[in-house]
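user: can you give me the structure for this one chain? tokens are fine.
assistant: on it. calling the predictor now.
[tool input]
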Amino acid sequence: MKKMYKVLMASLLASVLLIAGCSKNAEQTWSDNYELEDITFPLEQEDISLKIMTSSSPLAPNDPNEKLIYERLEEKTGVHIEWRNFTGEVFGERRNLAMATGEMPDAIKNAAFSDYELLKLAEDEAIIPLNDLIENYMPNLKAVLEKAPQYEAMMTAPDGNIYAFPWIEELGEGKESIHSVDNFPWINVEWLDQLGLEMPTTTDELKEVLIAFRDNDPAGDGQTIPMSFIINDGGQDPGFLFGAFGLGDNWDRTVVTNDGEVKLTAADEGYIEAIKFMNDLYDEGLLDIEGFEHEWPAYVAKGQEGRYGMYFTWDKGNITGMNDKYDLMPPLFGPDGHKNVTRTNGMGFDRSRMVITSANKNLELTAKWIDELYDPAQSVQNNWGTFGDDEQQNIFEWDEEEEMLRHLPLDGTAPVELREKTSVGGPLAILDSYYGTVTTKPDDAAWRLNLMKEVMVPHMKAENIYPRVFFDKEELDRLSKIEADLLPYVNRKRAEWITNGQIEAEWPEYLEELERLGLSEWLEIKQAGFDRQ
């Protein structure tokens, strides 16, 4: 890892030197020292600005200050933000370049640093500890941590310092969390009715339904795709079906048994039967052959054309719309009568949404500006979008009488699209206690939470998920090195076996290769992290 990091930094440094050589009189990337103390908003002083790097969706304005949320925040605080905004992979490149060369902004929002990167940047004194700033200048964030103290432990590094501001979004607790299952299976119930078929309850019945879709071609002109997915892609992966055969599967291949044992799903015996079932569907011509290579836009396009008998995703509204054509398929019994819904390890918590760099000369000002992002009503808008925008669709209306935000109907608009245009993300906190007092619950989230509770939760066998352990740098270094080879190997063999079979014949050799790639050490580190939580 260190060698790779040095190579990357050297490459980035060479790039920036080239850029610097082409651009004389480069502007200072951090703000001047305004020597402000005991700050209250709005500022009385004029021409006060902070320089912040951020990332945003390609659907959003290039200049974040064109978003109504930021216009209102500038009016409220009197602080102008000079944004350096990037989209896609460019953001990561420019962020790393800034940190490698010392041409740092005051802060980085939507930072997306890994835990290892956070600890390395802290060790290099490129970012600063935030503990004292939180204690002295951030009453909104402190109020969140007093109401939900579990998050302070998740924010805190093994050395006792907090190096980044988090994103917190509570939507349901425990098994009923909206994050418990990413890859809901959506089945075409209109086609079921047309063909006189019942909702499948077993894996065998599902196969028969998919064969009926294939043979009757309800999409017409040979356009029917009985089952589609994006392999190894979280919410779009078909791993939901694996729960009929044992532990099941999830996006990070990690589960915790009810005895507290951490296990790799892809090394479980039940995994063999699950892959054999998928290979059987493939041999029958029931799987979308593009599911092993296509990306989100193509996946959505075929869904919008009405070609899928069944597909997987978080919310059908983003692919086939919020109509009655598709419904959630309940979990299935496997050949031996086993039924299980495997929980993901996802939760509404991201440790690294904003950092303050060591170049920052206005720490009190910056901390108090960031604290505004943790104001309850501000956090809600940062996460989902705002109200009163005369130029585009609003996600909320403001209830003057109740002094709270009320979600408006989406009117057919894909929720992800609307939110990416109007929200700002970054550090924020939305607690379950806010619903009914600060905001209404999003209709699509309430609908999904109900499906989770009614359809999925009764069949979740696991009492634990793998928590957000903050490992130390040495542990992260070993995990990173092992996972760099282990997980791609698992993913590659998963796709190969579904298309080519041979899992039983190759299983012993596969387990030996997992061991060679460090499975036992990986499990030991993950287990130790789980045990000390």
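assistant: here you go. Residues 154 and 468 are 7 Å apart (CA to CA). Confidence is low (pLDDT under 50) at residues 1-25.
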